[in-house]
Amino acid sequence: MTKLGDRITIGELSERSGVATSALRYYESEGLIFATRTTGNQRRFHRSQLRRVAFIRSAQRVGLSIDEIRDALATLPENRTPNKADWARLSRGWQDRLDQRIAEIQRLKTKLTGCIGCGCLSLRTCSLSNPDDVVASRGPGAYYLHPH
Ligand code: FES
Q: Which fold would CATH assign to domain 7-92?
């Protein structure tokens, strides 16, 4: 791998980060990463943006939305790239989010267990297809079709 200069092209940023150039352009349009323009109107990213891209990808994997990532990055002075202490502080707050996702997946698994062998897929009563779970608590199956 060749050594990068301080200013890198979108292709170099893509190659080093493993993130598609289309996604990088999107991140830029959303204000998550920053580039200057050459006189020929080509993007040049400071090398530190690589770390910002790594932060964004990690946050996305945890389930943060683009807006939430932007808010997190906005807590950094002058939109600097997260340093070690920033990363520790911001990522610590993500543990609750992962716990919530784990709990939600466990609830889904319980519901799926109720569906297995049922097959009703009722929009009114199935605990998976009925997001409000209105009557699913009365048991799996097509409750209104076959009242218990
Ligand atoms: S398929 Fe989900 S409760 Fe019947």
A: Multidrug-efflux Transporter Regulator; Chain: A; Domain 2 (1.10.1660)
